[in-house]
Specification:
The complex is a heterodimer of chains A (357) and B (326). In chain A, 46% of the residues lie in helices and 10% in strands. Chain A is α/β, with parallel strands linked by helices and 357 residues long. Chain A folds into 2 domains: 10-326, Thiamin diphosphate (ThDP)-binding fold, Pyr/PP domains (Rossmann fold, 3-Layer(aba) Sandwich); 329-357, no CATH class. Chain A has a 6-stranded parallel β-sheet with strand order 1-7-8-4-3-2, sandwiched between helices. A two-stranded antiparallel ribbon of chain A has the order 5-6. In chain A, helix 5 (105-112) crosses helix 12 (300-322). The termini of chain B are far apart. In chain B, helix 2 links the parallel strand 2 and strand 3 (53-55). Helix content of chain B is 36%, strand content 19%. Chain B has 2 domains: 3-183, 3-Layer(aba) Sandwich (Rossmann fold), CATH 3.40.50.970; 197-323, Rossmann fold (3-Layer(aba) Sandwich), CATH 3.40.50.920. Chain B is globular. Chain B has helices spanning 6-20, 44-48, 60-72, 91-98, 101-104, 134-138, 151-163, 213-226, 244-254, 269-280, 305-308, 312-323, and strands spanning 3-4, 24-28, 53-55, 76-80, 114-119, 144-146, 168-173, 182-183, 197-200, 205-209, 231-235, 238-240, 257-264, 290-294. Chains A and B meet through helix 6, helix 7 and helix 14 of A and helix 3, helix 4 and helix 5 of B.
């Protein structure tokens, strides 16, 4: 019987969980001490921030917070593979990618601290804000990519979605539209194995999440999402294809959510400690640190110094967040429309009057 | 100047703004070579090309989501939902994103898009093609909800909707797409998106309505005039934000108000008009407010749909009820 078409999904990894090279054909940036150490430092910095944010929530100084623990390679790989004029459409925990684009930790904290000004962040003004409804951001990225294509701009739109989000209609719709219009679109499915309490195995019968791009005619690749070298190389490859008019790519970045879904979740209700312990052996910083130390590019002294520096940076951001005064009540009304309708203005006046009592 | 229909006025408005602003584009199912199933985009692809008049894959979620991405990145999409009953997959994107993009980013990102929706019953269409669902959207902060009722107002209101820097849900009463023609100068003059239009002056009763019921209501007013009853007719046109002042001024004069709309009664937008009358015009009223609406049922398949919809007789009966109170 003839097959009209056959498909394969490739898997990309350079650095295995033990910090050994599983693929010696390294991209140039990974052969460069300065660049590879810089990526490690970014990952460690995000981890320091994340711990501070969780502690803030536990002490009542932050609302519900979605930790990024364990996703550092995926997020920093995405952030380092994009250009400033590209568009990032995150879900709600890709802080590492956003820090690399200029978003400040205090803005992340403001958002989870109950203040919309966190969404008016210092990153590229065209980047999308955090997207809580799950998957909708994929179509906003595809729409952005369509705008770039229609205007002949060499720009890329990249959306992040989770393994759970890969089940959403919107995610499939974005894949389909990106294929139909040959859009400069990259979809990173960050497969951290858990959609709150539902494991990856219960999301889909598909053997990989990368293959979800096949039906839309996109290029698909599965990537070790704990290997920063593989993630950065894959994102750069996908962005380059997109920028040169060759269309969209789906990257499945395989990682593990080491923390609870959010601070409002208790993962012990649904997953074994043994699984989490095993995942800690594959986490992204450990392997890169081993590799860097084996090259004599990094030392425990470097590590200790950088942790101190990163904590100081995170502390300063926390202080800035805590010092931010609450928005005035009229801010509820002031950004609804470019021109405030009379009925909104009337209610604004009522809210202001209520403040005076 | 040739007289044109309401749907031709919509096409004329889109063409005007496509010529005037390179950021404006049209997207939807069958909007390209087919010119839309109602022909609202007829001829546009020939003048503006397939990059600006874009057929989409057959998925309403796609149309809404792409439009938001386009709008956030500097385009001004005019999206078409093929029918009212097909727009529900869009609601997540409209409510969670389009309506709050400006608000939740404190103005950093905006969503200047128009969603055109052929709306309402009365054309003997199949199931899910005849919904009067405007009040789903009038409860959503950040949206404007507009419904024209004549060729001239269709032209001016659609131009305003396209130019508006915020998302506009533009409901098009398909029953009157081709009902009559009038001269519509292609002068690019937009109408305001926050006023009601007084279509007929009267002194005995105020009739408040929108969309295709404007025709029924004007006919009822004609019939009432023959019995010596002077009815003022107000086309709400922009349902959100509501220009209540114009309604209030009229009720101050007439003391009586009948609200006419096609949507089901409970929590239909007529309830909001009645509530504002109770809050602000209680002492101007001399009789209880009347509503003539669709029933709280699904609009029937077309053999019964005319029994569901408001009509001249039902409006006259409601006017007579309100006039019987002295």
């Amino acid at each position: 019987m003839e097959s009209p078409v056959r498909f394969e999904i490739d898997y990309l990894q350079y650095l295995d969980a033990d910090g050994e090279l599983s693929n010696p054909d390294l991209p140039d940036f990974a052969r460069n001490r300065e660049q590879l150490v810089a990526l490690y430092k970014e990952m460690l910095k995000v981890r320091c921030f994340d711990a501070k944010a969780v502690a803030l929530q536990r002490t009542g100084k932050l609302g519900t917070y979605a930790s990024c623990l364990g996703h550092e390679a995926a997020h920093i790989g995405i952030g380092s593979g994009l250009q400033a004029d590209d568009v990032l459409a995150p879900s709600y925990r890709e802080y590492g990618a956003q820090f690399m684009r200029g978003v400040k930790p205090r803005e992340v904290l403001l958002y989870w601290g109950g203040d919309e000004r966190g969404n008016d962040f210092s990153g590229p003004a065209h980047d999308f804000a955090w997207c809580v409804p799950i998957g909708t951001q994929c179509l906003h990225a595809a729409g952005s990519a369509l705008a770039f294509k229609l205007r002949n701009e060499p720009r890329v739109a990249l959306a992040c979605v989770g393994d759970g989000g890969s089940s959403k209609t919107d995610t499939y719709a974005a894949i389909n539209a990106a294929g139909a219009y040959t859009l400069p679109f990259v979809l990173c499915i960050i497969n951290n194995q858990w959609a709150i309490s539902v494991p990856r195995s219960a999301q889909t019968g598909a053997k990989t999440l990368a293959q979800k791009g096949l039906a839309g005619g996109l290029e698909c690749l599965q990537v070790d999402g704990n290997d920063i070298i593989a993630v950065k190389a894959a994102v750069e490859h996908a962005a380059k294809r997109a920028r040169h008019g060759h269309g969209g790519t789906v990257l499945e970045l395989i990682t593990y959510r080491l923390a609870d879904h959010t601070t409002a979740d208790d993962a012990r209700r649904y997953r074994d400690d043994e699984q989490v312990k095993a995942a800690w052996k594959r986490e992204p910083l450990l392997r890169l640190k081993k590799y860097l130390m084996a090259q004599s590019w990094w030392s425990e002294q470097d590590e200790a110094a950088w942790v101190i520096e990163s904590n100081a940076w995170a502390d300063a951001e926390v202080d800035a967040y805590l010092a931010t005064t609450v928005q005035p009540v009229e801010s509820m009304f002031d950004y609804l429309y470019a021109e405030m309708p009379h009925d909104v203005a009337e209610q604004r006046a009522q809210a202001l009057a209520a403040e005076k009592h | 100047m040739a007289a044109i229909t309401l749907i031709e006025a919509l096409t004329q408005a889109m063409a005007y703004e496509l010529r005037a602003d390179p950021a404006v584009m049209v997207l939807g199912e069958d909007v390209g070579i087919n010119g839309g199933v109602f022909r609202a985009t007829s001829g546009l692809i020939q003048e503006f090309g397939a990059d600006r008049i874009l057929d989409t894959p057959l998925d309403e979620t796609t149309i809404a989501g792409l439009s938001i991405g386009l709008a956030a990145q500097g385009m001004k999409p005019i999206a078409e939902a093929q029918f009212d009953g097909f727009m529900y997959p869009m609601v997540d994107h409209i409510i969670c994103h389009a309506a709050r993009m400006r608000h939740r980013t404190r103005g950093r990102l905006t969503c200047p898009m128009v969603l055109r929706v052929p709306w309402g019953g009365g054309i003997r269409a199949p199931e899910h093609h005849s919904e009067a669902n405007e009040s789903i959207f009038t409860n959503v902060p950040g949206l404007r909800v507009v419904m024209p009722s004549s060729p001239q107002r269709a032209y001016g209101l659609l131009l305003a909707a396209i130019r508006d820097p915020d998302p506009v849900i533009f409901f098009e009463p398909k029953r009157i797409y081709r009902q009559y023609k009038e001269e519509v100068p292609d002068d690019g003059e937009a109408l305001p998106l926050d006023v009601c239009f007084v279509l007929r002056d009267g002194s005995d009763v105020t009739l408040v309505t929108w969309g295709s019921q404007v025709k029924e209501t004007l006919e009822a007013a004609d019939a009432l005039a023959k019995s010596g009853i002077s009815a003022e007719v107000i086309d709400v046109a922009t349902i959100k934000p509501l220009d209540f002042d114009t309604i209030h001024e009229s009720v101050k004069k007439t003391g009586r108000c009948v609200i006419v709309h096609e949507a089901p009664r409970t929590a239909g937008f007529g309830a909001e008009v009645a509530a504002q009358l109770a809050e602000k015009a209680m002492y101007d009223l001399v009789a209880p407010v009347e509503r003539v609406t669709g029933y709280d049922t699904h609009i029937p398949l077309f053999r019964l749909e005319m029994k569901y919809l408001p009509n001249v007789e039902k409006i006259i009966a409601a006017v007579n009820r309100t006039l019987s109170v002295s």
